[in-house]
Specification:
Helix 3 (81-98) packs antiparallel against helix 5, helix 4 packs across helix 5 and helix 6 packs antiparallel against helix 9. The protein has nine helices and no strands. The chain has helices at 3-49, 56-69, 81-98, 101-111, 113-164, 170-177, 180-193, 200-203, 205-220. This is DUF4400 domain-containing protein.
Length: 226
């Protein structure tokens, strides 16, 4: 392989990595905007159906801030959830101010109060989801730790099964393996769109235990001979 070919391959690899990174960021942004839309629709339906009053979104935001203030600094990322959420909310405020949303709300409140209430609720929902997104990002290291623990325990169980001539079951392996990513994705999506506040430390206990279980059984049922 000539030097020119190696350079071309390196450039192609960099372009592929850059394109993949941009695609993942765009997917994350689209996913978050979709969560904002779904949560806003749920909030509006709840108000119209009489499940809660017009201040429900504001109360939920206040409770989320209270939960966030009691979470300590993340030991791995060296970030405090409250600081991360505060920066994100500042960016959202700047974006709303840039498009002139506060002026629009003041105008609508004079002539179309119901529409102003709906938009205000959607804004509070956006703030709530920003806070929850910060919690999700800081909860990912915990998933990694649980995954590493499940991987180690599962490989030990695999070695024991291999040494003792245990039965091989590819059915369990393929079925359980498919639930590893959803254990993180579905739980995070559910947490973002919940129409009520819940302590994130309690909410993520079950998803993290499920993640550990799926990784454990995936590693323990991996084929005995490679």
């Amino acid at each position: 392989m000539t030097r020119t070919q190696r350079i071309d391959r390196q450039d192609t690899g960099r372009e592929t990595m850059l394109g993949s990174t941009i695609s993942q960021v765009a997917s994350l942004v689209s996913w978050f905007l979709f969560a904002v839309f779904i949560s806003s629709v749920i909030e509006w339906i709840g108000m119209l159906a009489g499940w809660w009053d017009k201040t429900h979104a504001r109360h939920m935001l206040t409770e989320e801030i209270g939960y966030l203030s009691h979470i300590d600094q993340n030991a791995l990322l060296k970030l405090h959830p409250a600081q991360l959420a505060d920066k994100a909310i500042t960016w959202v405020n700047e974006a709303y101010s840039f498009i002139g949303l506060p002026k629009v709300l003041n105008l609508l409140s004079q002539y179309m109060g119901w529409l102003a209430i709906g938009i205000s609720s959607a804004i509070d929902i956006t703030y709530t989801l920003v806070i929850r997104l910060a919690v999700v990002l800081l909860a990912l290291p915990a998933f990694i730790l649980w995954g590493l623990l499940g991987l180690v325990d599962g490989l030990v169980a695999r070695d024991i099964r291999k040494a003792c001539g245990g039965v091989e079951s590819s059915f369990v392996y393929h079925r359980v393996k498919g639930w590893i990513k959803p254990a993180i994705g579905l739980s995070s999506g559910l947490y973002l769109t919940l129409p009520f506040s819940i302590n994130p430390a309690l909410f993520f206990i079950v998803p993290q235990l499920l993640f550990f279980t799926f990784v454990y059984y995936t590693a323990s049922t991996f084929k005995k001979f490679i």
